[in-house]
Write a structure and sequence with these properties.
The protein has helices spanning about 5-25, 30-80, 85-100, 110-130, 140-175, 180, 195-200. It has about 200 residues and is mainly alpha-helical.
Length: about 200
């Protein structure tokens, strides 16, 4: 074998080895993405669950407020109570939506306490007013509205417990995966969520 052929053979083997080496280079380890994907899914699922639970709670609270307005309207039609007194109740009911807590303001327990006091006072007073109405015993519309208000008021604690259960899971998840989650959190902050049970203590 002459030198030229030998050199060609060496170059061919070297090229083959380079090509084989390129082919055997490992790409990114797929398992390194699996954990982040899984954490992202859990993170988003917990957020969705909190939003859904919150929305159900607020939707029920809005139904209670609508029932209160309906009750005042029915009492106004009856003409037994003065319009001035009933107007005062209307204003207090309207105020409820303005002072109601949000996922952000509930860090301040005073906000929840103020809303609860305003709501409970109205429920008590409006039900007492309706039940003292002379035609209450055979006015099925008034009876139905009173029952709606009373039932919604009793459901509050259940909705809050449901929300707290999800928020506790979320807070623990954030605590356990703080560093990894920094890569996927859009806002750049991973704040824990306040709980109703803390406000109640």
């Amino acid at each position: 074998m002459n030198i030229r052929n030998y050199s060609s053979l060496i170059l061919g083997i070297a090229a083959l080895l380079v090509l084989m080496g390129c082919g055997s280079k490992k790409g990114p380890d797929p398992t390194s993405f699996t954990k982040i994907d899984s954490l992202t899914d859990t993170y988003l699922a917990l957020q969705d669950s909190m939003v859904d639970t919150w929305n159900m709670m607020i939707k029920d609270d809005n139904k209670k407020i609508r029932a209160m307005r309906g009750l005042i309207h029915e009492l106004e039609i009856g003409g037994q109570y003065s319009k001035g007194d009933l107007k005062s109740y209307e204003q207090r009911v309207d105020q409820l939506t303005r002072i109601r807590y949000t996922p952000k303001t509930m860090w301040n327990t005073d906000v929840i306490e103020e809303y609860d006091f305003a709501s409970s006072s109205l429920v008590t007073e409006l039900i007492a007013l309706a039940e003292s109405y002379t035609a209450f015993s055979y006015n099925t519309t008034l009876q139905k509205l009173v029952e709606e208000i009373r039932a919604a008021d009793q459901r509050v604690e259940n909705y809050r417990a449901d929300y707290d259960a999800v928020a506790l899971q979320y807070n623990k998840f954030i605590e356990d995966n703080q560093e990894t989650l920094k890569e996927i959190a859009e806002s750049g902050t991973l704040d824990k969520k306040p709980l109703f049970q803390v406000a109640a203590e």
